[in-house]
Amino acid sequence: MIDINKININPTDAPDKEFIYIDIDAVENGTGKYSIEKTFLGKRAPSRARRIANKGSTIISTVRPNLKGFAYIAETIENSVFSTGFAVLNSKDEKILINLMIYYLFMYSEGLMKQMIAAMPKGQYPSINKGDIDNFILVIPPRTEQEKILSDIAEYEAKIAICEQKIQSLPTQKQAILEKYLH
Length: 183
Hints:
The chain is of the alpha+beta class. The protein is 36% helix and 18% strand.
């Protein structure tokens, strides 16, 4: 169902090329948001900078996955490389499993999270590996249901974005009222 870590590179093969580096710290836990601010030259590549995540990939932190350091890569980030601390997941066949659905399954499926927690060794470095991910059981709705779920989510996310914009404007509106009536 899912390809894992399909494309890897070694940035030191392009010593003078600048890369954007997305490591585990660049992904905000539980939100799907990530930063593309870190860069390096190929000759100074961190040893963990090896994974490629193209458009449609889901990245999941394999270190403490219970913290949900997961993100969906909606568009390819040119000249980017991801840490080997991520598993990069893609559907083998989008007629069966839509790429974006992988992200939502990992982010929100309680059953899948229980499997991740059970797979993590107890100790100071709780993590999962490719073999663990290969063995996870995913409950995959039919394609038409996936489309409906994703459509509903997109509709709610659009509403959330509008609300967030309104919230951001409220302090300015409040200040204008205070100035109007208190000066």
